[in-house]
Amino acid sequence: MQLEQMYQEIILDHYRSPHRAGLREPFDAESFQINPTCGDEVTLRVKLDDAGEKVVDVSYETLGCSISQASTSVLTDLVVGQSVEESMRVLAAFQEMAQGRGTVEPDEDVLGDGVAFAGVAKYPARVKCALLGWMAFKDAVVRVGDVPEKGTVR
Amino acid sequence: MTSLESPDVLKLRSDFPILSRTVRGGRPLVYLDSGATSQRPRQVLDAERSFLEQHNSAVHRGAHQLAEEATDAYESARARIAAFVGADPGEVVFVKNATEGINLIAYAMSNSSIRTGLGPESERFALGPGDEVVITELEHHANLVPWQELCRRTGATLRWYSVTDEGRLDLDSVELTERTKVVAFAHQSNVMGTVLPVQELVRRARAVGALVVLDACQSVPHMPVHLTSLDVDFAVFSGHKMLGPSGVGVLYGRAELLEAMPPFLSGGSMIELVRLEGSTYAPPPQRFEAGVPMTSQAVGLGAAVDYLNGIGMDAVHAHELELARVALDGLAEVPGVRIIGPTDLSDRGGAVAFVVDGVHAHDVGQVLDDRGIAVRVGHHCAWPLHRRFGVAATVRASFHVYNTVDEVAQLADGVRAAREFFGVA
């Protein structure tokens, strides 16, 4: 059955018990992303350390399918505690796998539980679901950078 | 009323080559997504191919034999399509699809509003601040966004009839006034299958002198529709939802209105006299068909209409209602399923939308797909309607004449499997 290829047990586990779910304070930036084809939504917050170099917390609320929820949950496992730079490397690897139509061999050392989404890449209609939370994370990190330094005038 | 027996359906299924293919590792295709686009019978594919192999040429220009034949084929299609919906050929404008048809009306009104219409006769299409366009909460985005845009351009106000918990129109939710210039609504909801009370809405619109625009995308393909009897001013429908090609649709307008309406797209074919200083325009329907039009598609749509006439639209409608009954009965047996829309068959067509407690519509759709069942998941271009029911997405099964009772019965089994797979059974 092909269904299990997409919905691997890891994905279903994250879907049933999502990690770091809910919106928390404090946070440096928030991003709201929507998938216009299906109406699924994610609101995601990012908290970096004082130097702005390390991901301290990622919190989120999603209204969406199992793939988008599980993917956002896995995202938090992979990026919280990492440097911003490393989190962007992970993001790039996840995106490459998700958009690879099943031709990209994922690196488990980089992607951890994220490799479970390799099967989703074979279903183009669901790739956006898998990337929704990741796009929100990327956007939120960029927004942190947009905030003017203390004492500067806009 | 004649109805289709299952042997009839099996026989006509053989006209649709795509229905015999398999999907997802050898499973027979169960196509329950005709509300999005329908499949085309060989007769339509053959008509397009034969036109292209024998008669292809630009219509309404050239004096050579192919030009004559192509023009005859194009105009013959127009005449048959017009007859199919109870209109005169001169009242049928070929457009790309229903979306373009609604935009055509909206932009003609826009042009009239800034006094770039034909002249005083176009004043009846003018809108301004204080005027109202009234739609409904269940509209497809195609019959919503163009009106939002028209209101933005003219300063008019958009209002809408709300929808009841049962998925019917709440006729008391809006009072039309002398300022209501347009009342635009779907004949049948593309999500819930609800058939709207056209006669009553037309009566109310007439009482205040508003123009009536009917989105007939989900009615013309599935039931007998006689536009002149319905007494609407404008109507639109798309070819690809009625066993015909994509890239062709119809804007119907009452002759007297089309006559007074300024063009939307301008250019070749739609003119009467052109000088560098200015131009005058051809009478309808040519005024609204700028450029070399879609031709094999129009011919294909003519063939689709012939095909549907051969079955009989009464029989098509009766068959689809039977399929809707099977779907509704089957889903009623599955715990945790909530139907969005009417559960009784009166004033209803064959689209069935639902949500499953604890399983997102996308995930239901994926499990169905794994069983070869193609349905639509998401908001089906009716986002406000989904908001009204407090859901982000629904699963929609929709039918056409080629679907069998057995196919539709598989739907409920698939939903049961989805509940089991996601551990909510």
The poorly predicted ranges of chain A are 150-154
> Mean of residue pLDDT of chain A?
91
- Assign the structural class of chain B, choosing from mainly alpha, mainly beta, alpha/beta, alpha+beta, or little secondary structure: alpha/beta
Structural class of chain A: alpha+beta
Order of helices and strands of chain B: HEEEHHEHEHEEHEHEEHEEHHEEHEEHEH
Oligomer: heterodimer
Q: What order do the strands of the largest sheet of chain A run in, or round the barrel if closed?
A: 1-2-3
Tally of separate helices of chain B: 13
**Rg on CA atoms of chain B, Å:** 22 Å
CATH class label of the largest domain in chain B: Alpha Beta
Arrangement of strands in the largest sheet of chain B: 4-10-9-8-7-5-6
Protein name (chain A): SUF system NifU family Fe-S cluster assembly protein
GO molecular function (chain A): iron ion binding; iron-sulfur cluster binding
InterPro entries (chain A): NIF_FeS_clus_asmbl_NifU_N (IPR002871)
Pfam family, one (chain A): NifU_N
